[in-house]
Write a structure and sequence with these properties.
Blueprint lengths: L11 H18 L4 E7 L6 E2 L15 H21 L2 E7 L2 E2 L5 H10 L4 E2 L4 E2 L2 E2 H11 L8 E5 L5 E2 H12 L5 E2 L5 E2 L5 H7 L6 H13 L19
Parallel strand pairs: 1-3, 3-8, 4-7, 5-10
Antiparallel strand pairs: 2-11, 6-9
Helix pairs in contact: 1-2, 3-5, 3-7, 5-7
């Protein structure tokens, strides 16, 4: 899981080094290993909300240097897999959440702070971190050459407006919104992974309940806002 996202703007060369060069060094050093490499749904670019989310066979259309460098990471593992027959699985994650980090935690803290929530990036996917971890471990068994590519995402296409409304009710706070939902968003379809590993165990209602309780009790945060609302690829 070599990667850099936050602070990429202004330090693009470091982002490319971490996301593309370091994975190439790893792939070259361990040619006989099975490798599960995390990528991101950002490599797809924006997709229609009505389309059900990007699938693994879609042509990548990364926007911004972070997403482009992540596609570069994929290409390095793809190259070395072809060169050395290294068994690889590439996981396009979109998005993992837990109590201290993730989109739901970001939204809960904005509501608590009395900040308006922008709705332009109006929809998202979320998967409990432990479910994503379990799928990553299980992917070792399915690593292949050429690499197996899988989307790791929750089954629901979540509405920012609906999740915020639910969070606000649980937090006993009001919520205000700005803007309107665009017709596209960064969305992934995880059916291929679910067919291999089964559905995620933790659903969105449980995630919202846990997050609201955590924030209400003053739980710690990792201090890493996701910036999921970015539509120009700048992080």
């Amino acid at each position: 899981m070599a990667g850099r996202k936050f602070g990429s703007t202004g330090l693009e060369s470091l982002t490319w080094s971490m996301n593309t060069y370091v994975p190439a060094l790893v792939a070259r050093r361990f040619p006989t290993s099975r490798i599960v490499a995390f990528s991101t749904g950002n490599v797809y670019g924006l997709t229609s909300v009505a389309g059900g989310g990007s699938i693994e066979t879609d042509v990548p259309r990364p926007v911004g240097e972070y997403a482009m460098s992540c596609l570069g990471r994929e290409r390095m593992f793809e190259y070395f897999s072809g060169t050395f027959a290294t068994r690889v699985a590439i996981l396009r994650l979109n998005y993992a959440v837990e109590m201290r980090y993730g989109i739901i935690a970001d939204l809960a803290r904005r509501i608590t702070a009395g900040e308006a929530v922008d709705l332009t990036m109006g929809y998202f996917n979320a998967i409990w971190q432990a479910d994503a971890n379990a799928m990553a471990l299980a992917s070792l068994q399915h690593a292949a050459s050429p690499p197996l590519v899988l989307n790791i995402a929750g089954p629901e296409q979540l509405s920012v407006r609906a999740v915020c409304t639910d969070l606000a009710s649980r937090l006993e706070r009001s919520v205000s919104f700005g803007g309107e939902e665009a017709a596209d968003a960064l969305l992934s379809n995880g059916q291929r992974a679910w067919a291999l590993f089964g559905q995620p165990r933790v659903g969105v209602s449980q995630l919202v309940e846990w997050t609201a309780d955590w924030v209400r009790r003053g739980g710690a945060t990792l201090g890493k806002p996701t910036h999921f609302e970015s539509r120009d690829g700048r992080f």
